[in-house]
Specification:
The protein is an alpha/beta fold and 384 residues long. The protein has two domains: 6-105, Oxidized Rhodanese, domain 1 (3-Layer(aba) Sandwich); 110-376, Metallo-beta-lactamase, Chain A, CATH 3.60.15. Helices cover 30% and strands 23% of the residues. The protein contains 13 helices and 20 strands. The strands form four sheets. Strands 8-9-10-11-12-13-14 form a seven-stranded mixed β-sheet. Strands 15-16-17-18-19-20 form a six-stranded mixed β-sheet. Helix 8 (264-286) runs antiparallel to helix 11 (336-343). It is globular and about 65 Å long. The mean pLDDT is 95.
């Protein structure tokens, strides 16, 4: 009888990781791909269905790595991992599963965290686990309305959050032209025939599509919930932040709970210092009227090469009060010149394919599904 391999979905794999299950995760991609980005706890065993194991390994080594317990095998798309899984089964490993869709599906995995509010306000943080992208659904339970903020390419995830809460999406907002992921904002707005909002300053980014402009000081209403717009340049020229119900700051890529946004992705290396100066003014002048009690809900959380969040864990709210960040975040406490020096000191890799992603998000380039998936692979790398 031929060997049968069990298939794990990425949701199954995430649940096993979160639960701390006894599971050996073997990643069969080549070392450079593995080292750039992988599932938490995975071990690299390079394998090709035709060429076999990497030259530094033999099957006895693999047996030792796999051990005697359950094994989950993952690769880029589920191809080499399947062949490798059959090899393991043939060698007597009787609890082998292949992760369906591989790292491609892992990159599209989402967690949803509801923010505990004390009114009719509905607020949910939608986490794209592998990339650390954070988007939001903001609504009014009583009115049955919601807007979506910073939807990623899998925009249906945001639509489902609103639907599960009994809310109808009446508008979609992008806080800026993203560099690390392809926005799903315009696609969602077009499908639902609702306004798509972008900063009025986006004219400086040469976008090739129509949008409803939002300027500093504007207010978007969602039922009885006021969403106030504040210009927050620095990471990009046109970046804006949203203040929800005077209690929550959707800070996009200006302020994260563990860092701030990098500035050279739009401004370039030569203009990064100017961007850093703008960002400093956003943090210290634009945010000055905001109370320390305002809750900061950022646009990203850092994800390292091991797949771990820079703060907290997937499925937990990524947030801090503005007072906590003013007091505890070193970058927030630096004088302007030191801040600019720190922000422009390039020590982290840029987001993969960021120039292509920016062109797509400006409407200047189209990609098919496979191309879009390829340019998005990897963590966001938007933080200093």
């Amino acid at each position: 009888m031929p060997t049968l391999l069990h298939q794990l979905t990425v949701e199954d794999l995430a649940a096993a990781i979160d639960a701390g299950d006894d599971l050996t995760i073997v990643d069969t991609r080549q070392p450079e791909s593995f080292e750039a980005w992988h599932v938490p706890g995975a071990v690299n065993v390079p394998y090709h269905p035709i060429d076999g194991l990497g030259e530094d390994l033999d099957w006895d080594d693999v047996d030792e790595i796999a051990g005697g317990g359950p094994v989950a095998v993952i690769c880029a798309r589920g191809l080499s991992s399947t062949s490798f899984g059959f090899e393991l089964s043939d060698r007597g490993h009787d609890d082998v599963a292949v992760v369906k869709g591989g790292m491609e599906d892992w990159s599209k995995l989402y967690d949803v965290v509801d923010v505990d509010t004390d009114s009719d306000l509905f607020l949910a943080q939608v986490q794209r686990r592998a990339k650390g992208c954070l988007g939001y659904v903001v609504g009014d339970h009583d009115a049955g309305e919601a807007i979506v903020v910073d939807a990623t390419r899998q925009d249906h995830e945001f639509e489902l959050v609103a639907a599960d809460a009994g809310l109808t999406i009446t508008g979609v907002v992008d806080t800026h032209v993203h560099a690390d992921h392809i926005s799903g904002g315009r696609t969602l707005a077009e499908r639902l025939s609702v306004p798509y909002y972008l900063s009025a300053a986006a004219t400086e980014r040469d976008v090739a599509y129509e949008y409803e402009p939002l300027a500093d000081g504007d207010t978007v209403t969602v039922g009885d919930v006021d969403v106030d717009i504040i210009a927050a340049p620095g990471h990009t020229t046109e970046q804006m932040n949203l203040v929800v119900d005077e209690q929550y700051l959707l800070s996009a890529d200006a302020l994260f709970v563990e860092s701030v946004g990098r500035t050279e992705l739009e401004f370039g290396e030569g203009g990064a210092a100017h961007g850093a100066e703008l960002l400093y003014e956003t943090l210290h002048e634009t945010y000055a009227p905001l109370s320390d009690d305002v809750v900061v809900l950022p646009g990203h959380v850092s994800v390292d090469a091991e797949g771990h969040f820079g703060v907290g864990r997937p499925g937990e709210l990524v947030a801090a009060t503005l007072g906590e960040l003013r007091e505890g975040l070193e970058l927030f406490r630096l004088e302007k010149s030191a801040f600019v020096d720190r922000v422009t000191d390039r020590t982290t890799e840029k987001p993969p394919n960021y120039e292509t992603v920016i062109d797509v998000n400006r409407g200047r380039r189209d990609l098919d599904e496979d191309e879009a998936t390829g340019v998005e692979l990897g963590p966001n790398n938007c933080a200093v």
